[in-house]
Amino acid sequence: MPHQNNRKRGDLGERLAYKFLQQKGFEIIDTNVHLGKYSELDIIAIQNDVLHIIEVKTRIVCGYPGENPEFPVYNVTKRKLSHIMKGAEIYIQSRNMTNLDVTVDVVGVVVDKMLKKAWIQLFPNVLEGVD
How confident is the model over 52-72, as pLDDT tens digits? Predict the structure, then answer.
């Protein structure tokens, strides 16, 4: 049952992130791409000739989280980033997109079930400064 709840939460966050990114001018070219045993790319988009590999992290709260909700971006571990990078390499090679600049971004989604409201934030280029 917990796995099913996680999947529902993830699906909700990805739908909200998809709409958010479109409104920000991203062209979504793929979603939920499974590449190998450990790698799934949530959203792949292009904006200004840059390929964006986007991980979506969603948190559900009940009750107003305040003006600055704690986005779940910090749940993206180095291990997860490593899996995303491996998947991105496979994706880029298999679709002959090696001519594009690439960045890994995270979209944090906080959903308040009581208020029926969502806060969404883009955290661009999360690999910058990561060893």
Answer: 999 999 988 887 666 666 778
Q: Long-range contacts: 101-105, Cβ < 8 Å, 24+?
A: 101/49, 101/50, 101/51, 102/50, 102/51, 102/52, 102/53, 103/50, 103/51, 103/52, 103/53, 103/127, 104/52, 104/53, 104/54, 104/55, 105/52, 105/53, 105/54, 105/55
Question: By C-alpha distance, which of 71, 65, 20 is closest to 42?
Answer: 20
Instruction: Measure the CA–CA gap between 91 and 2, rounded to whole angstroms.
Output: 30
pTM value surpassing 0.85: yes
Yes or no: say if 57 and 71 are a contact pair by the CB < 8 Å rule: yes
What are 99-113's pLDDT values in tens digits?
999 999 999 999 988
Query: What CATH number corresponds to the domain at position 86?
Result: 3.40.1350.10
What are phi and psi for residue 97, nearest 5 degrees? -110, 25
In a domain, 130, yes or no: no
The total number of structural domains that make up the chain: 1
Predicted pLDDT of residue 122: 96
